[in-house]
Every structure is written in C-alpha cells, then in structure tokens.
Amino acid sequence: MREYFGNIFTALSTIFVGMKITFKHMFVPAVTIQYPEVKPELPERERNRLYVNIDDCIGCDQCSRACPVSCISIETTKAIPGEDLGKTSNGKKKALWVTNFTIDFAKCCYCQLCVFPCPTECIYMTDVYEFAEYKRENLLYDFVNLTHDERQQKRDNLAKFNAEKEAEKLKAASEPKPEIKKDQPEEK
Amino acid sequence: MMYDFFVDLFGSSTLAGIISGLIQAFLPLFTFILPFALFAVWLERKVSAHMQDRLGPMRVGWHGWKQTIADILKLIQKEDIVAKDNDKLLFNIAPVLTFAGSYAAFAAIPFSGYFIGTELDLGVFYIVAVTGLVVAGILMAGWASNNKYSLLGSMRSVAQIVSYEIPTMLVLLSLVMISGTMSLHTLSEMQTGYIWNWFILGGPGFTLSKFLLIPLMFTGFLIIYISTLAEVNRTPFDIPEAESELVSGYHTEYSGMKFAMFFLAEYANMFAVSAIVAAVFFGGYQSPFGYLGNLVGAEWLIPVEQFFWFTAKGLFFVFVQMWLRWTLPRLRVDQLMTTSWKYLIPIAFVNLILIGLITLL
Amino acid sequence: MSQDLTKNTKVSSQSSKIRTEEMILNMGPQHPSTHGVLRLELGLEGEIVTKVIPHIGYLHRCFEKHCEAMTYPQVVPYTDRMDYLASMGNEFGYAVAMEKLLGIEVPQRVEYIRVIMAELQRIASHLVALGTYGADIGAFTPFLFCFIDREKILHLFEITCGARLLYNYIWVGGLSHDIHPDFVRKTREFIKEFRPNLKEINDLLTHNRIFIDRTANVGVLPIETAINFGVSGPNLRGSGMKWDIRRDDPYSVYSKLDFDIPVGKGTYGTTGDSWDRYFVRVLEMEESCKIIEQALDQLPEGDVTSAIPKRIKPNVGHVYGRVENPRGELGYFIVSDGSTSPYRVKVRPPSFVTLQIMDEICKGYMVADVVTILGSLDIVLGEIDR
Amino acid sequence: MKKAEEIFQLLKDNFPDQNLELKTDQPTEPVILIAPDEIEKISLFLYKNTELLFDSLVLLSGVDEVKANLISVYYHIESTSLKHKIVLKVSTDRNNPEVVSVTSVWKGADWHEREAYDMFGIKFTNHPDLRRILMPYDWEAGYPLRKDYENPEFYQGMKVPY
Question: I need a surface site. Which of B78, B108, C53, D96 has the fewest CB within 10 A?
C-alpha cells in the first residue's frame, strides 16, 4: 500500500520537477542563430577550404605526397635556362613552372596534413565554408594563374629544349665517352 | 435561417436541406477546426523550440506563423503513395474515419452559450462515443498498411484507447452524478458566475459538500487529464506512434493529404479532449469573474467573451499537453496498461464512490 | 537469409487451438533509433523478443585496408572517422600504440594536453549518449540540452585545431598545434557552467520516474557474461566491475591524476541494467571534469611538436596499444614490416565487441526495450563497421 | 600478475607434448606460438587455470604473412582479475587456412572470428555461425585483407571502382 502511493507520489513529483525545468527554459534566450543572416564567428585556426598562393609555390609536390586521399594533383614543368621565375616571399628560388595545381574538394578531408610540410607556406586553410556545388566537376579547383595556352607553351618550351639537348647528346654520343657521364646528372 | 434561404433559392426543400446541411457541417471545419489545427501545429513547434532553447520556425511570416499553412499546401501537392500490397479500400477510408471521429466530436462542444453545434442532452456520452471511432480508423490504417510497424502501432493504440476510456468514463460519471445532467451546455450553465462555482472547486453553492468535493475533484481532474492524454496518443502515452521504436506507427505508410488528415485529426482531437476537461471542470465557456458585456451593458459582447474564454481554456490545456510532451519520456506498452488498470481505474472508482456518498449528504 | 527465416518460423505450442507464428521484424538499416545504419532482425512473439540478429557492415569503409596503403602519419585522419563521436580518443589510441612501437618519449605538456582533450571528448561523447538515450525513450528535450553543452566543447576543439568533429590533432609523437591562449580560461569556464547543466539533465531525465521505469531492470548484463564477451568501458562498469584502462593499465599521465571509477550499483533495479549503464556515464562526466581541472592545474610549459619524428619507419614487429575511449577499450594492433606504411592495422572497436551481446540480453523483453538496451550500450556504427 | 615467461613455463609443464614456442624478440610483446588444432584446448586451460584466469579475449586479429605463405591469427588475451596479458599466435597454411574456434571458451570471439573469416578466409572449425560480417553476404570476390586481393569489376551488376 505504501509502495503504491509512493509510486504515485514519485511519479507526480518527478514529472513536476521536469516541467519546472522545461518551463524555466522557455524564457532562456535561444542558443541557435538564424544562419544565413547571422553567421557564426569562426576562430582563427578554422580549417575549411584550402587556398594555394600560387605565386609562392615552388612545385615541390610535398603537399600532394602528404595528402591521405590524393586530392591534390600537381604537374610541374622545368623552366628552361634563361627563364627567371623570381623568388617566393620567403626567399626561395623558384625553378619549376607549376603548370597544373588542382585540388578536388569533393575528395578533400580537411585534415590539414598538406599544410605542414609546405616549405614556403603557400598552401593554407581559410575560413570559407560555403562552397557547395551542384556538380562534382565544379569542386575541382585550379589554382594556377597561367592560361591554358601559356601552360602549353611552357610544356612545349621544355619539350623543345629537351629535344635540343637530346640531339646535342646524340651528337655527343658519337664523340668520345667521358662526356656522357657529365650529362647524366643534369638529366635527372 | 440558411434552410429557408435555400428553399427560396431552389424551390426544393430536399435540395435545400442537403446544401444547408453540408454548409453547416463544413462551416466549423473551415472556421474553427482547420485554423485551430494549423495554429496548434505552429504552437507545438514554437513551444518545443523555446523549451529547448531554440527559435523554431522563423522564416515564413512573423515568427514563422505561416509555416504550417505552407506545410499543408506542400502536403496537398505531394504524391499520394499507395503501396502495392496495401488494402486499398481500408487504406483510403482510414484517414477519413479518423478525422471524422475527431471532427464529429466538435458538434457537441459548447463554444459559448449561444454557439453550439447541436445541443445534445447526452453531450458527454456522445463525445466519448464518437471519439471511439478514431480507434477504428487507426486499426484500419495499421492493418491496411500491411506493414509490421504500423500493425504493432495500431494494436497498441487500440489497447491503449480502450483501456483509457474507462477512467475517463468513470470520472465523467462522477460529474454526471453531481450535476445530474449529461448535457455539456447545462453543465457549463451550472458553473456560471464566478470562479468558485466551477466544478474543480466543488461546483455551485456553498455547502459542506462543496468543500469535501474539492480534493476529490482535483483527483478526478488529474485522472481525466491523464487518460485523455492517452486517448489522443500524446507523450508520455504516444506509444502507437513512438517514433524511436515504431518509426511512426500506424501512419508510417501514409503520405500527402492522407497523412495530413491524420495529423489534423490528432491536433483537432487534442482540442476536443481539452474542451471536455474545460467544460466539465473549469466552467466551460463561463468567465471566471463576470462579463465585460454585462458591465458596459453590451449584450452582444457576451457570446464573444464566452467564446474567448472557452478557447483560452482549451488552448491552455493544449499547451499543457505540449509542455508534457517536451518534458517526459514515453512509457512502455505494459507500463501503460499498468498505469490504467492498476492506478487510474481503481482511484477513479474510489473517487466515484466517495463523490456518490457526498452527493447523498 | 531466407534460410534463417524458415528455420525460426516455428509454430508455438502454447495453445493448441490458435496457431501462432513468430513474426520477424526488420529493424533498420533505416530506423530512427539504431544509432546509425545497423540492421536488427527481431523475432517477435507478440511484442516479446525471442531473438535478435544484428547485421552490420552497412558503413564499411575499409579502414584496415586503407591503412596498408598509407604512411603512418596519414592514418591519423582515418582513425578520426571510426568513432566519430570520440575522434580525439581514436587518435590518442593510435598515438599510444605507435609511440610504443617506436619507443618515443613525448613531452609532458603533450601528454597533459592529450589527457585534457580526451576527457573533454569523453564528456562530449557521453553527452551525445545521454541525449540520444533520452530521445530513444521519447524525451527529446534533454537531447538538445546535451547538445548545447557539447557545442561548447566542440568550440574548445575548434579554437585549438580548427575542426569540430574530425580533428587530426593528436599526432604520433606530439600534437599538430599547441593549445590556443584562451583555451585554459575557456575550459575552466566551461566546466563551471557544465556542472549545473548536468544536474539539470539529471533532474529532467535521470531521476524521472518514467525514465526509471523504462530503464531499470531492463537488459540486465551479468558481470561474468560481460567479461566473457569482452565488453568494456561504461557497459562493463555498469555491471559493477571496477575496470578502467586508465587505472588498470595506465597510459599517458593518468597515473598522476586522481579520479574515481564509478560503477553500477543497481540503484533502482538489478546491477547491470540499462539505468546503471546510463548512470555510470553521468558519473563519469563528473570524474572527467575533475581530471580536466587537475590536468589544467598541472599543465607544464614546453614545446608540443619537438618529439614528432620526421619520418616514421619502425622496426619489424607488432604492438598492441590501447586506451579507454568513451565506449570502452579501444585498441590498435599494428604490425610493421619495417617500411613507412603499416603492414597490418587491426582495431579493437569497443562497440563491435559490445554489440555481440544484443542477442544475449534482449531475449524476453519487448520491442520498446530493444531500443532501450541498444541505446544504453551506446554504440557508434562508424567504429563497428570501420 | 604473471610474466610471459612464467605463463609459458606453466603451459609447457601442462602440455609437454605440444610444440609451443615463446618469442620475445618482438620489440614490445612476447608471443606464444601454438599449433592451429590445439588453440582451443590451450585456451580452455588458460581460461580455467586458477593461476592464470584469462577470462577475457581482448582482440583476435588475422594477419596475412604472404612472404611465408602463412596466415596467422593473433589472440590478445587478458585476465581482468589477475591483470596479466599474453599474446597467442597461430599460423596456418595460406591456401587452406583452418583454425579451431575459441568461441566455446570466450563467447566474444564469435564476431572477431567471423571478421577474420570475412577478411582473410580463415575457416574456424566448430564456429557456430561462420558467415561474412562486414562484407555483403554474397560477396564472391575473395577476402579483401589478403595482400593479393583485387577488387572485382562488378558486384551484382554494379561497377565496383566507381
């Protein structure tokens, strides 16, 4: 009998306690925000879309190798002698034309592993998070600021240069041996 | 009035009867039930949002008040999906029947002394009986869906509603014993005057029995409120549509307008049962402290005030239903039966006997 | 599958006149309370459960196969994605295992920060467990209250490493960033705010009579069964076993910190019921607060990246490193063949082991209790399927 | 609390005719090598012996040792009461890997063994319900964690490398 009324009492009292709490919360200001109008404040270390400052990129391919999902693809073209590519902002000399630098954000897992090995700090994460697209192809970002023709031109230049060198080498091959050894390290 | 008008118009009393009947039948639907259901859905969202420190719908209209209208428009446009193995006939009838049950209950609800669908002598009985139709609709829906979750949900629902009708009836019976009437209109009229004439405070008159009745009336009120909660499948008794167990119970397979009918029926039902509680215990449409209309001598104001008071009381109980929903977990099906058969029914029965003894005084 | 159905569809002999059949109810993979894409095949007699067969693998992402193609540091972001509610713990486990394999000593500051992060993650993870458990049982409001507090923890992680869910923060030999200058102050503030909030959740849910009725005496897991199945973490402690890797096989700096190991006592029912498992989590959050406060007090100065190896190339061998994740013992078995990528990585996901007991403890309860029991085990399908 | 050597000695004393071997040259963990047919017997002894009481199987993992043409199973076992642990290793032929199941000793081995079967194709004899667990039940393209595994072109008419 005592248990019977005890049950009724605990049921009603705990329900009452719960109702008191929810009622109190009716007057607590909302913690949510009206998103597109009000934007959340993002901390400085926010890890969102990657950005590549291509002017600083030396084409070392370290970020691409660090990436666990292989979303960065880099194609570099060696500059032919006589071309001056300038220096990066921290004083490294550039020796490669970056003819292709694409990041597939459909694959990117935002792990930041590519950011740390970069010797010139040219790849970093920004706080841009609104970049949804209707098509996957649109998530393939190309960071190179050369036009299509310019890239082709660089490739052609190198091919021409290599061809010339090859011809030179062939010419050299018909001559005495020791000169070939000299050429080999350059070819690498 | 309307009948005469149509007789003049068509010259045929049969046609006029049908048309005026139809209009009279659909008038409350479009003037009260539909707007109320839309409002209640919006209220539910806002109440839940604010209880959870959220904002709820904010985009469509001021604080999102047009949100439910948009939702209903969306539901109407949606494709009506009927699965291959559904029992087509029952599947289509079920939402109509469910809605009809809750809709018919509004016929006997006294919104004010002047506006009442039909002044039935058996108003209380009628409402309880007609809301029983909902059970049939739910069972049909569960069976016709040919879905195990729906079937489980509808069986639970039937078990629940059938067991909770008993405490409801017992409490209403005790009220009938005091008042000697089953008409909701008469019951409301008896509680006229001031707040202390309400049945929750022992009813009209100042006798010893009034004071003896007060605790019994509170118990009765708690019982009827709890059991009506169960009858309209609200938390903590929402096991027929327990979304975490049975996905959404008997209306899992429904979409579009048929789903909307279940949805509207649920909210219409919420008001119907709240209205019964308000009518029998809380003075019905009577104001707690006299009428402004009497004070300023404007007779026409009284029905408006009465309507206001009735809706306000009904809405308050609807609000408490929502408040409970967003506070409590839900019971299990056997605990639900325990609550009814071991707690509510015996207490309601003892309550009935005690009230009977007091009325003999 | 069809074989199973026919095999188990038996005619019960309870009443000779009425022919009854066991009903097979397919719960999931799309179901609101299977906590992911789990499929449970329930055999029902009315509403009574006669068997539970879990089917997993819907979220299989080949973690172990992937690892074999990754270098050791590249595995870290993949570990995040296993138990996505406790990513810090996953990384911690991998770091502990790898440091054991490589024999690296990491600076004290790193260890303390790791412990703080792991404990914050434990609170965040348990908050989700509590909240979703409430939602499973029908109370939706505590779920959002829990998420409000979790959000604050996620903010702490966000200011530290920039990510909210998948951190890639704890690396082999160190951390990716030092903590933010505001971190210590904000963490202390959070703990101050969190304690009253936890009490509120307790009042609203834990001690609610309906909640107790639903969970007490439901899904009782006896201690011997739990150990034999290899159940660990809060589920084992809920059964009354005082077993915690942090205490029984200490790693990092846990041996220097003072904390209790809460166990289930059967307050409202039998020891090892769902309520006990749930309440152990509540108590553990308080212990985590205590650990964080101590760790913040003792936090030494120093560099957090100094011990990170430039190139990870362990010797041939294998290692098993384990940590106490919010869901139990998380272990990594790493086999190295002397190259820069692991030869084999095998994970011991706590939820994988825990989910096996479903059939054992669900029999004889109702459909609604299956949800209760599953919720109280607090599984994450991301780590079961990997 | 016992050291690996002591545990090994105890096993050696009780199973004199068994070909047991203790390997401690691994950098971190001592391993006891056991023949695949005897693992259940030895496990039961480890489980029952009052000085050992290995009541919990922590982890069971298959490893494909393709160079030695072997498939090995590692058992990490632990005693929760005496707080010691040991690693058992079983090696079996790669072409027809068969190991006796330990589910009768530790029930928790059930899913671990199913996973090892799923990933390496190790057949655990006496296992009550040896089915695939993570891969689809009708996966016919082999055992994915084997080093020589190759993805199939199609699975049920769906192209696999999408």
Answer: D96
